[in-house]
Design a protein that fits this description.
The chain contains 11 helices and 10 strands. It is α/β, with parallel strands linked by helices. The protein starts with a strand and ends with a helix. A 6-stranded mixed β-sheet has the order 6-7-8-3-9-10, with helices on both faces. β7, α6 and β8 form a beta-alpha-beta unit. It is globular.
Length: 282
């Protein structure tokens, strides 16, 4: 079930001295089952874009289609859309508020007016998906570690049974292990549950390792939309936007420029290892 944006524009403070174009003629399609990385400098329009995908923000002009239906048309079931397109904000643990973990994860499906048995079943399955064991269910979410709180917040969205999961900087503020754990969790959800993932990130290494498609935003426009290898070929253009490529890609370019015949388009450490071993073996 795709989300399609047609000539979407969003202007903050329109008609005032503070007018700012946040999105400028965006045309995109997010297809079923894709793992997409959304990158761009601060103020590039990333967060504004993702809040349009489930109707939290309305475009100034243009259309957003969910399975061919205009989500801002009169009579559209916005509540159903928001249960299918889940959005996990940056620092989502700040939105935890129930007395215990299980109750917090039940909150979303309970608001769908589902039977109690279905609500609890969904909460239980969501907590299993994020790999939190039974011993956490009756704990206060405020007694958990940062990474565990993040898992509870993600479980609360998963309990809605979304078909698309949008995560805005999901590893912000976590230590390296917590960051890796959350990214692996998201990757597993994509592989095992076939959930469409949109990952907003400042980390080039993260998007290079996990995603299959990268969308690059700059001053409200889509500048690149392609595979990681093809996007990260544009080193100079990305640097002009205040971005970079993965560190390992810079290393491979240096090796190539030094006369070592490696593939310059390598974007992950695993690929670099295999490329260098291939050179040694030959």
């Amino acid at each position: 079930m795709s989300i399609k944006l047609e000539h979407v524009q969003h202007i903050y403070e329109k008609g005032t001295a503070m007018e700012q174009i946040a999105l400028d003629d965006i045309n995109l399609e997010i297809l079923d089952g894709q793992f997409i990385g959304l990158i761009g400098h601060t103020g590039s329009g990333k967060s504004t874009l993702v809040t349009h995908l489930n109707g939290l923000t309305k475009p100034t002009s243009g259309r957003i289609l969910w399975n061919g239906e205009d989500i801002n048309a009169s009579g559209f079931d916005m509540k159903k859309l928001r249960s299918k397109v889940g959005l996990v904000f940056q620092y989502p643990e700040h939105q935890l508020f129930e007395a215990d973990v299980f109750s917090d994860v039940c909150f979303g499906p309970k608001n769908l007016k589902l039977p109690k048995e279905e609500v609890e079943k969904r909460a239980y399955e969501a907590l299993k998906m994020v790999k939190l064991g039974d011993e956490f269910y009756k704990q206060s979410p405020f007694d958990l570690s940062g990474g565990q709180k993040r898992r509870v917040a993600i479980a609360g969205v998963l309990a809605m049974n979304p078909e698309v999961l949008i995560l805005d900087e999901p590893t912000a503020g976590l230590d390296p292990k917590g960051k890796k754990d959350i990214l692996n969790l998201i990757s597993d959800l994509h592989k095992e549950k076939k959930i469409t993932i949109v990952l907003v990130s400042h980390s080039m290494e993260d998007v290079a390792e996990y995603v299959e498609r990268i969308i690059v935003m700059n001053f409200g426009k889509v500048m690149f939309d392609d595979t990681p290898k093809l996007v990260f070929r544009n080193i100079q253009e990305l640097e002009k936007m205040g971005l970079a490529v993965p560190q390992v890609t810079y290393v491979m370019h240096d090796l190539y420029n030094a006369g070592i015949p490696v593939d310059k388009d390598v974007t992950t450490i695993e690929e670099a290892k295999n490329e260098i071993l291939k050179i040694f073996h030959s």
